[in-house]
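User: I'm curious whether this sequence folds into something compact or stays loose and floppy. Could you predict its structure so I can see for myself?
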Amino acid sequence: MSKYNLIRGEAFVSGECVSVIEDSGFTNVEQVITRLLSSFSDNISRPSKVQIKISNLDKKQTQLYQRILQ
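Assistant: Here's the prediction. I'll summarize afterward.
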């Protein structure tokens, strides 16, 4: 991942998309995940399993991740 690539991140809870970001400037996956999780509202029950889809739009690559929201 390069800071010049356009990245789209989507976060899903129980199959429902709860957060989307699309930006450049990320140098690693954890930066994208941190930004997605920090944008969650307080009405999401915790702990929750979060599925994360990160796409590099310039390279047309997609990767899936999973985190537990505490």
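Summary: The helical segments are 29-38. The mean pLDDT is 93.
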